[in-house]
Design a protein that fits this description.
The structure holds 3 protein chains of 3 kinds. By secondary structure, chain A is of the alpha+beta class. Chain A contains 3 helices and 8 strands; from the N terminus they run E-H-E-E-E-E-H-E-E-E-H. In chain A, the strands form 2 sheets. Chain A has a 4-stranded mixed sheet with strand order 3-2-8-7, with no helix packed on it. Chain A has a 3-stranded antiparallel sheet with strand order 4-5-6, with no helix packed on it. A 6-stranded mixed sheet of chain C has the order 4-3-2-1-6-5, with no helix packed on it. In chain C, strand 5 and strand 6 form a beta hairpin. The chains are: A alpha+beta, B mainly alpha, C mainly beta. Chains in contact: A-B, A-C, B-C. At the A-B interface, strand 3, helix 2 and helix 3 of A face helix 5 and helix 14 of B.
């Protein structure tokens, strides 16, 4: 096998290192799992120009896909929630974001349950003893 | 004193795994039918859970990731979902049985109908999870659950024929009046009970609740090597008491009152009250452990925020899931079903969950990206692989044996 | 384009012969510097002639235990190779076409650092 070209920075594989990993916000609070990635700079069916810059990762996609996980297929992009890749500060055993989870659309279910259900039970908003 | 409480997590995990309501009765049933002929299975199970709990505790302390997150990452969404479904059903059935078990223990103490105690027990379980700090929860239930040691004391007070007990233990095999298939069914049930997945889910999530880091590895090992063998000893003591008192008299174990009969015989009312306190604490502790495990597994699979160390409104779906679990458990119990019978069927789901739980743990414990220098040594890998084979064999044989023996009838 | 559209596609060379399945996409965090992290660019794809997906990565990483599982995994994914992005001609529905004379490179990842 020919040796691979020398890398300039951190090298990783998308499926091995990113998919299904936990996404944490700036404070270490879990946000969601990384279900998919959006790649920019490449189109389906369009020949790739050898001079063009390589495609890059533009966003993490996450969203309600329990049924598709069981039966196969993929929900359309419009149903997926998008976390822009520029918010990511670190890719390790988890993916860390540089912002607080509350600022993201992707956490709206958690915030809704927190505000409307759990928050209404006495003691729900108290810090644990 | 702090040192004693430092092992509370291991003790509580072991209590929920070895002497919850299902195991209390199963151990007594086994003792009353096979004597100590299945004691070797408890030993095999204790070593197995020690090996894997130690691995998952180390993974949690070093990498900060709990077991079900690892399962999702390594098995992928589909196989991970299969494990989630099986584990969740085991948890739900066990929560139902434990809340029923708390009610049965209260009946033993007060002679009030257990169905009246069910809502009280369910509310108590929920309020403790809602408000009580994790350390306090594990210290109190762990300590009180240890009063089950009274079974070991009772065994000595009964002055048994140690020679014949040892003979039963060292000559594994079905006695004349039991079929070999029934013997192996109970062997698998006891092994599955010793290595139930929720034990590693709870232990590793508890490690994160307690904020263990790489400096706490010695503490993690202490928890494992004190807690689980203690659970094994309690298991064998209960079986031993049944072997000495119930086996010769051919008394069948159908309820908690037969389980505590040997203790009452050995030590009278005082010993009996210790046993009841122990059973109450153990079933309550197991209820807490399995309810929390339901929350942990769902939250970790879907990537939700979780943990008792967070304000409930900040781990909202985690708490909501547990509330729903407890409500479903109460609904199931209100149909009048015997909680003990329920646990016999969770062995079916264990068959699916066991290999899918332990394989990812073994893999991640070797991954330098997660563990750095704390990866498994050769010895640990060897024994872990041997146990993986045993686990797969048990998983494959569980359902056929369940059907053939009619759940050990 | 969505990553999972690429994963699982067949990889065919310039003549149309099927070389294998696209099991992964190799990335490098080394593009234009961004606010928090440099841009993460696609540097290649991983093609496996004998398997459809590889989530454990034993064939791409150095010595890892446990021994038997590592051996089994390396055998299942034997023949996997890396193709640099310059050698990818186009991506269609379910098929990725490679350029003529594309090099089959060693799929192994460089020894990485451990991060939390």
């Amino acid at each position: 096998m020919n040796p691979r070209p020398q890398p300039l920075g951190r090298v990783l594989d998308a499926h091995l290192h990113i998919l299904d990993r936990q996404v944490l916000d700036r404070d270490g609070v879990p946000v969601t799992t990384a279900d998919d990635l959006e790649l920019e700079g490449i189109e389906m069916g369009v020949p790739i120009d050898p001079e063009a810059p390589p495609p890059f990762v533009s966003a993490i996609l996450t969203g309600p896909d329990l049924a598709t996980r069981i039966f196969g297929g993929r929900p359309p992009v419009s149903r997926r929630m998008v976390i822009p890749w520029r918010l990511v500060t670190e890719v390790g055993t988890t993916i860390r974001l540089g912002v607080s989870g509350d600022a993201l659309d992707a956490t709206w279910v958690e915030r809704w349950v927190g505000d409307h259900i759990i928050g209404r039970i006495p003691g729900g908003r108290h810090d644990p003893d | 004193m702090k040192r004693i409480f430092g092992v509370a997590l291991g003790v509580l995990t072991a209590i929920g795994g070895f002497v919850d309501i299902g195991d209390l009765v199963t151990n007594a049933v086994v003792g009353s039918r096979f004597g100590l002929g299945l004691a070797w299975v408890v030993l095999v199970g204790v070593v197995g859970i020690c090996v894997y709990a130690q691995m998952s505790g180390r993974v949690a302390a070093v990498s900060g990731r709990a077991t079900f997150e690892i399962i999702r990452e390594r098995l992928g969404p589909r196989a991970g979902l299969a494990n989630l479904a099986a584990s969740f059903l085991i948890n739900l059935l066990t929560v139902t049985a434990e809340i029923g078990g708390v009610a049965l223990a209260l009946q033993l103490a007060t002679s009030v109908d257990p169905r009246l105690w069910v809502p009280v027990a369910a509310f108590a379980v929920w309020i403790v999870i809602w408000r009580v700090r994790f350390e306090l929860l594990e210290n109190v239930t762990g300590l009180l659950g240890l009063t089950l040691i009274v079974f070991a004391v009772a065994l000595f007070l009964l002055s048994p024929d140690w020679g014949s007990l040892a003979g039963q233990a060292l000559q594994p095999g079905a006695p004349a009046d039991e079929a070999a298939t029934t013997y192996w069914f109970f062997a698998i049930a006891l092994f599955g009970a010793a290595m139930t997945p929720y034990e590693v889910f709870f232990f590793s999530s508890g490690a994160i609740e307690e904020r263990w880091t790489e400096d706490d590895l010695a503490k993690s090992r202490l928890n494992v090597f004190v807690g689980f063998p203690l659970g094994g000893i309690l298991s064998i003591a209960i079986a031993g008491c049944a072997a000495v008192v119930l086996l010769p008299a051919s008394i069948d174990v159908t309820s908690l009152s037969q389980v505590v009969l040997p203790v009452a015989e050995a030590g009278g009312k005082v010993a009996l009250s210790f046993a009841i306190v122990g059973i109450l604490a153990a079933t309550f502790g197991a209820a807490l452990e399995t309810t929390l495990s339901s929350g942990y597994t769902l939250a970790q699979y879907f990537g939700w925020s979780w943990g008792k160390f967070r304000r409930p409104a900040k781990a909202a779906r985690f708490h909501l899931a547990m509330i729903i679990c407890v409500l479903v458990a109460v609904a199931i119990l209100s149909t009048g079903v015997d909680p003990i019978v329920i646990t016999e069927y969770s062995v079916v789901f264990s068959a699916v969950a066991l290999p899918l739980t332990y394989l990812p743990i073994l893999i991640i414990a070797n991954d330098r990206e997660y563990m750095g220098d704390q990866v498994n040594g050769r010895g640990m890998n060897f024994i872990g692989s041997v146990y993986l084979v045993i686990i797969i064999a048990a998983a494959v044989a569980a359902i056929p044996l369940l059907i053939v023996t009619g759940a050990g009838a | 384009m969505i990553l999972t559209d690429l994963l699982g596609s067949d990889a065919v060379d310039a003549d149309g012969t099927r070389l294998g399945c696209v099991v992964d996409v190799r990335l490098e965090i080394a593009g234009a510097p961004g606010q928090l992290l440099a841009a993460t660019i696609v540097t290649g794809i991983l093609v496996s002639p004998r398997s459809r997906s590889s989530t454990w990565g034993y064939e791409r990483r150095g010595a890892q235990g446990p021994f038997l599982i590592a051996r089994l995994q390396r055998w299942l994914h034997r023949g996997m190779f890396l193709v640099t992005w310059e050698d990818v001609a186009r991506a269609d529905e379910g098929v990725v076409r490679l350029r003529e004379g594309c090099a089959h490179l060693d799929p192994r990842l460089p020894e990485g650092h451990r991060s939390r």
